[in-house]
Design brief:
Strands 2-4-5-7-6 form a 5-stranded mixed barrel. It has helices at about 5-35, 40-45, 145; strands at about 35, 55-60, 65-70, 70-80, 80-90, 105-110, 115-125. The longest helix is centred in the first third of the chain and has 31 residues, at about 5-35. The radius of gyration is 26 Å and the shape is elongated. The protein folds into 2 domains: about 1-35; about 35-135, OB fold (Dihydrolipoamide Acetyltransferase, E2P), CATH 2.40.50. By secondary structure, it is an alpha+beta fold.
Length: about 160
């Protein structure tokens, strides 16, 4: 085998090794960052599979269940007639909209202790987005419904 052929084989082998390594790192990075959205009912039905996956669960914060200790927040999520205790230990404080009866989305893992251990928390207060004077449960009108008729015409 000539020295030229050996150079090409070494270069090709090194290139292949680098490409395989980069592919492996990309694959494992995607696997670590993906999370599955599940309802509380689906979470309970997952069995042992729930303990090994990164999950997202949503529900309403049960009134009176929020307990703050330093940066840790414990509360109960409610969805229909199901409840699950959540323990949030993220790096950021919970959002300002996180309070009793707010809608919350927790991302983390489900522990064998029956507690959902959240690392990220999002919250939305439904009453904040309702139109003025309307009950909190009434949806806001769309922009096309809210505009009066005759917009853009001039009166003579």
């Amino acid at each position: 085998m000539s020295s030229q052929t050996r150079k090409y084989l070494k270069f090709g082998g090194a290139t292949a090794l680098i490409l395989v390594s980069m592919g492996f790192l990309a694959y494992t990075g995607v696997q670590d960052s993906k999370s599955y959205y599940v309802t509380l009912k689906e979470l309970r039905e997952m069995g042992d599979g729930a303990y090994s996956k990164r999950l997202r669960v949503a529900g309403n914060v049960e009134p009176g269940s929020i307990k703050r200790v330093g940066t840790k927040v414990d509360f109960i999520l409610v969805e229909q007639d199901l409840k699950i205790p959540v323990s949030y230990t993220g790096t950021e404080a919970p959002p300002d909209t996180f309070k009793d009866n707010s809608q919350a989305l927790a991302e983390g893992s489900y522990g064998r202790d029956g507690v959902f251990h959240a690392k990220a928390l999002q919250a939305k207060c439904a009453s904040k987005y309702a139109p003025e004077g309307a009950p909190a449960g009434e949806p806001a009108k769309s922009m096309t419904q809210a505009q009066p008729t005759g917009v853009g015409t001039t009166a003579n």
